[in-house]
Amino acid sequence: MPAEQPDAIGEEVRKVARVVLLDPADRILLLHGHEPGDPADDWWFTPGGGLEGDETREQAALRELAEETGITEVELGPVLWRRRCSFPFAGRRWNQDEWYYLARTTQTATAATALTELERRSVAGARWWTCQELARAHETVYPTRLAELLRHLLDEGPPAGPVLLDTEIV
Question: What pTM was computed for the model?
Protein backbone atom coordinates (compact mmCIF):
# COMPACT_ATOMS: atom_id res chain seq x y z
CA MET A 1 0.00 0.00 0.00
CA PRO A 2 1.54 3.34 -0.98
CA ALA A 3 2.27 5.84 1.77
CA GLU A 4 0.31 8.60 0.01
CA GLN A 5 -3.24 8.11 -1.22
CA PRO A 6 -5.60 10.61 -2.89
CA ASP A 7 -8.42 11.77 -0.62
CA ALA A 8 -12.02 12.35 -1.69
CA ILE A 9 -11.10 15.53 -3.59
CA GLY A 10 -8.03 14.06 -5.23
CA GLU A 11 -5.30 15.59 -3.06
CA GLU A 12 -2.43 13.36 -1.98
CA VAL A 13 -2.68 12.49 1.72
CA ARG A 14 0.48 11.36 3.48
CA LYS A 15 0.01 8.57 6.02
CA VAL A 16 1.90 9.52 9.19
CA ALA A 17 2.67 7.80 12.49
CA ARG A 18 3.53 10.03 15.46
CA VAL A 19 4.70 9.13 18.96
CA VAL A 20 3.50 10.60 22.26
CA LEU A 21 6.63 9.52 24.14
CA LEU A 22 6.49 9.72 27.93
CA ASP A 23 9.36 9.22 30.35
CA PRO A 24 9.01 7.82 33.91
CA ALA A 25 8.16 11.35 35.18
CA ASP A 26 5.32 11.63 32.60
CA ARG A 27 7.20 14.26 30.60
CA ILE A 28 6.53 14.29 26.84
CA LEU A 29 9.30 14.52 24.26
CA LEU A 30 8.83 17.18 21.59
CA LEU A 31 11.04 18.13 18.67
CA HIS A 32 11.77 21.77 17.86
CA GLY A 33 11.24 22.47 14.18
CA HIS A 34 11.34 25.49 11.94
CA GLU A 35 10.87 26.46 8.33
CA PRO A 36 14.12 25.69 6.46
CA GLY A 37 16.03 28.95 6.11
CA ASP A 38 13.89 30.77 8.72
CA PRO A 39 14.59 29.60 12.30
CA ALA A 40 12.25 32.33 13.62
CA ASP A 41 9.26 30.52 12.04
CA ASP A 42 9.29 27.70 14.58
CA TRP A 43 7.11 25.22 16.45
CA TRP A 44 7.22 22.09 18.62
CA PHE A 45 5.88 18.71 17.53
CA THR A 46 5.85 15.02 18.41
CA PRO A 47 8.38 12.69 16.80
CA GLY A 48 7.12 10.79 13.77
CA GLY A 49 6.74 10.87 10.04
CA GLY A 50 5.47 9.26 6.90
CA LEU A 51 5.24 5.57 6.18
CA GLU A 52 7.88 4.13 3.86
CA GLY A 53 7.19 1.30 1.44
CA ASP A 54 4.88 -1.32 2.90
CA GLU A 55 5.66 -0.68 6.56
CA THR A 56 2.83 -0.51 9.10
CA ARG A 57 2.13 2.61 11.10
CA GLU A 58 3.58 0.88 14.17
CA GLN A 59 6.80 0.13 12.28
CA ALA A 60 6.94 3.72 11.00
CA ALA A 61 6.41 5.10 14.52
CA LEU A 62 9.33 3.10 15.92
CA ARG A 63 11.61 3.81 12.93
CA GLU A 64 10.90 7.55 12.96
CA LEU A 65 11.41 7.72 16.73
CA ALA A 66 14.80 6.00 16.42
CA GLU A 67 15.87 8.20 13.48
CA GLU A 68 14.77 11.50 15.02
CA THR A 69 15.73 10.88 18.67
CA GLY A 70 18.00 7.84 18.89
CA ILE A 71 15.53 6.34 21.36
CA THR A 72 14.94 2.64 20.72
CA GLU A 73 14.03 1.37 24.19
CA VAL A 74 10.30 1.98 24.00
CA GLU A 75 7.09 0.24 24.80
CA LEU A 76 4.68 1.19 22.00
CA GLY A 77 1.10 1.42 23.20
CA PRO A 78 -2.25 2.09 21.58
CA VAL A 79 -3.27 4.77 19.11
CA LEU A 80 -4.48 7.70 21.23
CA TRP A 81 -5.58 10.21 18.63
CA ARG A 82 -6.06 10.61 14.91
CA ARG A 83 -6.12 13.88 13.01
CA ARG A 84 -6.07 15.27 9.51
CA CYS A 85 -3.93 18.32 8.95
CA SER A 86 -2.74 20.52 6.12
CA PHE A 87 0.14 22.96 6.35
CA PRO A 88 2.74 24.74 4.23
CA PHE A 89 6.33 23.64 4.78
CA ALA A 90 9.50 23.83 2.70
CA GLY A 91 7.76 25.27 -0.33
CA ARG A 92 4.85 22.86 -0.60
CA ARG A 93 1.55 22.00 1.07
CA TRP A 94 1.47 18.83 3.17
CA ASN A 95 -1.83 16.98 3.68
CA GLN A 96 -1.53 14.34 6.35
CA ASP A 97 -3.52 11.63 8.10
CA GLU A 98 -1.72 11.34 11.45
CA TRP A 99 -2.05 8.57 14.04
CA TYR A 100 -0.57 9.32 17.49
CA TYR A 101 0.76 6.29 19.39
CA LEU A 102 1.39 6.27 23.12
CA ALA A 103 4.89 5.07 24.04
CA ARG A 104 6.89 4.92 27.23
CA THR A 105 10.62 4.85 27.77
CA THR A 106 13.24 5.11 30.50
CA GLN A 107 15.80 6.28 27.89
CA THR A 108 15.79 10.09 28.13
CA ALA A 109 19.03 11.03 26.33
CA THR A 110 18.32 12.00 22.72
CA ALA A 111 20.48 12.11 19.62
CA ALA A 112 19.14 12.40 16.10
CA THR A 113 20.77 9.48 14.28
CA ALA A 114 19.30 9.43 10.78
CA LEU A 115 17.67 12.71 9.80
CA THR A 116 16.78 13.32 6.19
CA GLU A 117 18.38 16.28 4.42
CA LEU A 118 15.18 18.31 4.94
CA GLU A 119 15.04 17.37 8.63
CA ARG A 120 18.67 18.43 9.09
CA ARG A 121 17.70 21.88 7.76
CA SER A 122 14.53 22.15 9.88
CA VAL A 123 14.87 20.30 13.21
CA ALA A 124 16.70 22.27 15.89
CA GLY A 125 16.62 19.79 18.76
CA ALA A 126 14.44 18.01 21.29
CA ARG A 127 13.13 18.73 24.78
CA TRP A 128 11.21 16.88 27.47
CA TRP A 129 8.18 18.89 28.66
CA THR A 130 6.01 18.51 31.75
CA CYS A 131 2.29 18.91 31.27
CA GLN A 132 2.45 22.17 33.28
CA GLU A 133 5.22 23.54 31.06
CA LEU A 134 3.19 22.72 27.96
CA ALA A 135 0.09 24.40 29.39
CA ARG A 136 2.09 27.59 30.07
CA ALA A 137 4.03 27.56 26.79
CA HIS A 138 3.79 30.54 24.47
CA GLU A 139 5.44 28.62 21.63
CA THR A 140 3.44 27.01 18.84
CA VAL A 141 2.84 23.31 19.53
CA TYR A 142 1.20 20.73 17.28
CA PRO A 143 -1.37 19.39 17.65
CA THR A 144 -2.58 22.71 19.04
CA ARG A 145 -4.47 21.16 21.97
CA LEU A 146 -1.54 18.97 23.05
CA ALA A 147 -1.36 20.30 26.63
CA GLU A 148 -5.07 19.58 27.17
CA LEU A 149 -4.82 16.18 25.48
CA LEU A 150 -1.78 15.22 27.57
CA ARG A 151 -3.47 16.32 30.81
CA HIS A 152 -6.50 14.17 29.97
CA LEU A 153 -4.24 11.21 29.10
CA LEU A 154 -2.32 11.48 32.37
CA ASP A 155 -5.51 11.90 34.44
CA GLU A 156 -7.74 9.34 32.72
CA GLY A 157 -5.35 6.95 30.94
CA PRO A 158 -5.52 6.03 27.27
CA PRO A 159 -8.93 6.21 25.57
CA ALA A 160 -10.79 2.98 24.75
CA GLY A 161 -10.21 3.74 21.06
CA PRO A 162 -8.53 6.47 19.02
CA VAL A 163 -10.05 9.93 19.53
CA LEU A 164 -10.61 11.84 16.30
CA LEU A 165 -9.14 15.34 16.73
CA ASP A 166 -10.33 18.38 14.83
CA THR A 167 -8.77 18.86 11.41
CA GLU A 168 -6.05 21.52 11.52
CA ILE A 169 -5.39 23.65 8.46
CA VAL A 170 -2.55 26.14 8.73
Answer: 0.88
| φ, ψ of residue 12 in degrees (nearest 5) | -70, 130
Helices (H), the chain: 57-69, 117-122, 131-136, 146-156
Given a cut of 80, whether residue 2 has pLDDT beyond it is: no
- Cα separation, 84 vs 79, whole angstroms: 15
**Residues with Cβ within 8 Å of residue 45, at least 6 apart in sequence:** 18, 30, 31, 33, 141, 142
**Whether the Cβ atoms of residue 43 and residue 124 lie closer than 8 Å to each other:** no
Radius of gyration of the chain (CA): 15
Comparing CA positions, the residue from 111, 99, 18 lying closest to residue 72 is 111
CA distance 13 to 36: 22
Burial class of residue 97 (count of CB atoms within 10 Å of its CB; 0-12, 13-18, 19+): middle
What is the overall mean pLDDT for the chain? 88
Q: Determine the pLDDT at residue 11.
A: 67
pLDDT, position 147: 96
